């Protein structure tokens, strides 16, 4: 079952930018819920039959859907640690034929 989403919670409300660290606890929860909503929408749109989507494709799609989203605003240098911190995604890192590792993720079963 998909989480009820309010992706428009990330829309500018006309009150100007507020740093994530300065938001109230309720606003942080609402903001992260909206980000999870966008992530889940990308997973739903681009995942394979087993629910996996590549981390690269997820990052590309997030930057299109949420152009102002930057994991550095949340204290992370890279997308993967940020996603792991949300605690709702599982990761797989198979090594491809070329020996290069590809990272995939999907939503954990509730």
Automatic annotation (TrEMBL):
Pfam families associated with the record: OST-HTH (PF12872)
Domain of life: Bacteria
InterPro entries hit by this protein: LOTUS-like, OST-HTH/LOTUS_dom
Domain (HTH OST-type): residue spans on this chain: 31-109
PROSITE patterns per UniProt: HTH_OST (PS51644)
Protein name: HTH OST-type domain-containing protein
């Amino acid at each position: 079952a998909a989480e009820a989403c309010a992706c428009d919670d990330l829309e500018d409300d006309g009150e100007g930018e507020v740093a994530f660290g300065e938001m109230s606890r309720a606003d942080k929860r609402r903001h992260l819920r909206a980000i999870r909503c966008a992530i889940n929408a990308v997973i739903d749109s681009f995942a394979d039959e087993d629910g996996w989507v590549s981390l690269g494709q997820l990052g590309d799609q997030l930057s299109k859907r949420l152009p102002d989203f930057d994991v550095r605003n949340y204290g992370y240098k890279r997308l993967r640690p940020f996603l792991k911190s949300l605690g709702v995604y599982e990761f797989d890192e198979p090594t491809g034929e070329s020996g290069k590792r590809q990272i995939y993720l999907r939503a954990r079963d509730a």
